Amino acid sequence: MSGLLIAAPASGSGKTTVTLGLARAFADAGLELVSGKAGPDYIDPAFHASASGKPCFNYDPWAMRPDLIRANAALQAGEGGFLLVEAMMGLFDGAMDGTGTPADLAAMLDLPVVLVVDCSRMSQSVAALVQGYRCYRNDIRVAGVILNKVGSPKHEAMLRGALEAGGVEIFGVLGRDPALALPERHLGLVQAGEHAALEDFIAHAAAVVRRSCDLQRLAAVAETRSAPSAAPAVSRLPPLGAYIAVARDRAFAFSYEHLLAGWRAAGATLSFFSPLADEAPAADADAVYLPGGYPELHADALANAAQFRLGMQAAARRGARIYGECGGYMVLGEGIVAADGIRHAMLGLLPLVTSFAERRRHLGYRRVTPLTGSGFPGPMTAHEFHYSTVLYEGDADRLFAVTDAVGEDLGQAGLRRDTISGSYMHLIDVAPVAP
C-alpha cells in the first residue's frame, strides 16, 4: 500500500479542494485509490467518496486505537492500493490534551506529508514556515509542498526561490480561483448531497490539479511509505443487531464508514432507508440506527413522514433495538424547535424536546461509559458537535457517563427506554484500556 497525508498549517488553506482534485485525478489515471479523513469529521468523507468513487474512512488518532487505524487502512486499501488521507485543522493541531494530531496519524501509518500552503498573504516568509513544519517532529516526513492561492508568476518566482534555496520540493502551484471555493455551514462544508454542481466542482478541481501538480512525482513519493506489518486482528464496536436498518439521506448523513464496515465484518446485515422519502425501516430488522445529520433543516418533512413514523413505531413494538445519535437522537424525541421558533413533532419514542431557536455550541471529544441496561458492552470514544439545546427531558434512564478529552466529568448524557436509546455522542471506537 502506498499513501500520502495532505495537510496544512491551518484550516482554510485549501487542503480539502486539493485532496478532492488529487483523488479524482489519480482515480482517472487508473490508480487503485481510496481516501481517508483524519479526525472525527462527518461531512468531508462524502465529498471524498464522490471524488474517488469509493467509501471514505475516518482515521482518528485520538479516538481510535492505533491497531484499529492500521487494520482499517489494510481493510480499505489492501495490498497495492493508494491511501490518500486529508488531515484536519493544522498538521500539529489535536484534542484538548494535545494528542490526536494529523502528525500522529502520519507517524502511525508512515505516511509522507504534503503540506498545502495558502500563499495569498506571504512571499519569501513561506520558507521559514515550511522549514519549521519540516523540523518540528523527527518521527514524520514533510516530503514537500503544494502552493495554493498564488497571485502571479512573479509571486510564484519569489516563493520558489525561497523554498528551493532550502531544499524544499514543490509538487504543485495553484493560482487564485474563486471556482475552487466550497459553501460552508456551521459544522463545516455544506453536505455533498446538497451541492447541486458537485460533479462539476470536482471535475474542475481535478483539471486544475492535473495542470498544476506533478502527479507522477506525488505517486512516487507515496510509494516511499515503508511496507506495513501484517494487519492486526482487532476488536471493534459490536453491531446493534444481526440485521440493522440504517437511515441514510440528507437528514441522516453522518454515519462513519469504518463503523458500518466493522458491523458487516462481525456478520451483521445492513439495509438502508430514507426517512425524507417517507420510507420505513425493514420490517424484519432487529435493530434500527438513526445517525446524525441535519434533521432541523428537514423538520417539516420528517414531521409529515407517516410511513417512517409508523415503521419506527412498529420496530419499537416488536422490541427492535433502536439507537439514534445526535440528529437521530433528536428525531427520536417528541419535537424539534427550528431556528424560526416553530416546533415540529418528531417520533415521540423518547421524552425529549430540542431547540435551535437559541443556539449553543457543544464541541469536543468524549469518553463515554455505558450505564446499566444500555446494551453497550463497555467504555467507548466519541465526538460531540451540535448547536441544539435541550428544552425538556422526561422520565427515562440515562445512557452514558461522559468525560471530555482531558478527563473532566461532564455528567450523564443520553436517554433510554426499554430497547430505545440515543445521545448526542457520535460513537467511534472501543476505548483503550487505561495503562
UniProtKB/TrEMBL annotation:
- Active site at C326
Q: In which pathway does it act?
A: Cofactor biosynthesis; adenosylcobalamin biosynthesis; cob(II)yrinate a,c-diamide from precorrin-2 (aerobic route): step 9/10
- Which EC number(s) are documented for this chain? 6.3.5.9
Gene name?
Answer: cobB
List, alphabetically, the PANTHER family matched: COBYRINATE A,C-DIAMIDE SYNTHASE
Database matches in SUPFAM superfamilies: Class I glutamine amidotransferase-like, P-loop containing nucleoside triphosphate hydrolases
Q: Which residues form the signal peptide?
A: none
UniProt keyword Protein transport, yes or no: no
The UniProt family comment states: Belongs to the CobB/CbiA family.
Q: Which residues form the CobB/CobQ-like glutamine amidotransferase domain?
A: 244-428
Task: Say what the protein does.
Answer: Catalyzes the ATP-dependent amidation of the two carboxylate groups at positions a and c of hydrogenobyrinate, using either L-glutamine or ammonia as the nitrogen source.
Domain CobQ/CobB/MinD/ParA nucleotide binding as annotated: residue spans: 5-187
Protein name per its UniProtKB record: Hydrogenobyrinate a,c-diamide synthase
Q: Which UniProt keywords apply?
A: ATP-binding, Cobalamin biosynthesis, Glutamine amidotransferase, Ligase, Magnesium, Nucleotide-binding
**Looking at its record, which EC class is this enzyme?**
ligase
| Reaction(s) the record says it catalyses | hydrogenobyrinate + 2 L-glutamine + 2 ATP + 2 H2O = hydrogenobyrinate a,c-diamide + 2 L-glutamate + 2 ADP + 2 phosphate + 2 H(+)
Keyword ATP-binding attributed:
yes
**Which residues are tagged with the site Increases nucleophilicity of active site Cys?**
H426
Pfam families per the UniProt record, alphabetical = CbiA, GATase_3
Q: What else is known?
A: The a and c carboxylates of hydrogenobyrinate are activated for nucleophilic attack via formation of a phosphorylated intermediate by ATP. CobB catalyzes first the amidation of the c-carboxylate, and then that of the a-carboxylate.
Cofactor(s) in the UniProt record:
Mg(2+)
